[in-house]
Amino acid sequence: MANTSLDAFKENQEVVTVDASKKIRVGIIGTGWIAASHIEAYKRQPDVEIVAGADLIPGKAAKFFADHGVEGVKCDYKDGEEMVNDKSLKLDAVSICTYNRQHAPCAIQALNAGVHVLLEKPFTVTTEEAVEVMKAEKKSGKVLSIGFQPRLDDNMKMVKEVVESGVLGKIYYIQTGGGRRRGIPTPFGTTFIEDETAGLGALADIGCYSLDMVLNAIGYPKPLTVSGYKSDFFGTDPDYIGYKKCGHPEYYKKFGVDDFAAAFVRLEGGIILDFRIAWAMNLDTSGDTIIYGTKGSLRIPSTECWNGTIGGDLVIYHEVAGKQVETKIPQIFPKPGTPSCFEKKIRTFVDACKNGTAAPVPSSQILYNQAILDGIAKSSDLGKEIEITIPEI
Question: Which pLDDT band, with edges at 50, 70 and 90, does 16 fall under?
Fold first, then answer.
C-alpha cells in the first residue's frame, strides 16, 4: 500500500521572499465588489504598482480607488479596451473583475495588447468563448491565470495529495457539488442573476469551484459526455425570502439564470462524475463530496455555504491487514496572520508575470471545467445527453 503518513499532508511552512526592486504595473478592469478583494491583495504586495482602472459606469472607478486609499491611478477610460491600449501606462498585467459575459472580450483585448491577465471565475460563459480567449493567450505568449483561489487552500492541496498518493487505487466514481439553503447573491445587485450579464448562475458562481476541487485532484481528465439539468424555481419566485431581505422584491422579474443544476458526466479513464449545485434549496447541504476508488474512498465533508474549503476532517475508508478501517486526516486551519487564499492567488499570479513561469491556474485545465458547465446548460436546454466537443487550439 502507498505511504499514507500524515506528514505528507502537513502545511508547507516555506517562507517566500519577494524582490521589491522589480515591480509590475497593474490595472483593474471592472470595479465591482470582487475587485475590492483584488485591490486589497495587490496593496499587500511590495512589488506591485496599481496604475490604472476602468469601469463602464462613469465615475465608478475613480470612487473605487479613492475608497481603497490608492492615489495616482489613471481611470478616465470609457472601458477596459481603451485602458489596455494606453501605451503610456506601460501596463504589465490586469485583473479582470467584470460580470461573466464580459470575461471573454476583456481578456482577449488585454492579451492582444500584450498584457498578462488574471481572469476572475468563471473562465467564460461558453466553451466557444473560452477557446477564443485561449487562442489570444497562445498568440500573445502572456500569462493567463483563472481565479480559482480555493485550490490554494491547504485542505484542497491535501485532497489532491491523498489522491496522488495512490491510497485510493483507481478512481472510478465521484459525487460532488455544494450549495446554500438560501443564497442567491442578491446583495450585489442583479449582475449575478440576469442572463445578459451573468449567462450562468449557480453553475458558474460556485459550481466551478466544486468541479475544480475534484478535477484538479484527479488530474483534470477530459470530459466526454454530459446529461445535465438546471432549474430556477427559487429565483423566479416573487415570494423568495432573499429578495425581501435585501429590499428588492422585484428582483424575481430579472432572474434569468439557474439557481440549481445537476449532471451526470463521463470523463476519460472510465470515471463518472455525479454533480449537483444550488444557490437555494430546501436542504441544509447537497451532500459530502466522495471520491470512490478501488483500494479506498475519500469523504470530503460539505459546508453549509460554499466557502472554498472543507467542512471537517477528511476520512479515507480502506482496508488494512484485512480489516475495514477509517483513517481521519485532520482539517487544517490557517494560522493567524498567514495570507488568505485570495492573497495567495494574487501572489502566485504576480510571481508568474515577473518570472515568466506557468500560470498558477492554467486555462488548459479550466477549459475542461468550463466545457462541463456549458455542457450542463446546453444538455438541459436540449433535454438529452450530449457529447462534449473541445476543438484544438
Answer: low
Q: What is the pLDDT of residue 24?
A: 97
Task: Identify the CATH class of 151-339+370-380.
Answer: alpha beta
Looking at residue 15, what is its pLDDT?
54
Beta bridge partners of 319: 324
Model pTM score: 0.94
Domain 24-149+341-360: CATH class, spelled out: alpha beta
Residue 108 pLDDT class (50, 70, 90 cuts): very high
Domain segments of the chain as ranges: 24-149+341-360, 151-339+370-380
Residue 123 and residue 282: Cα distance in Å, rounded?
29
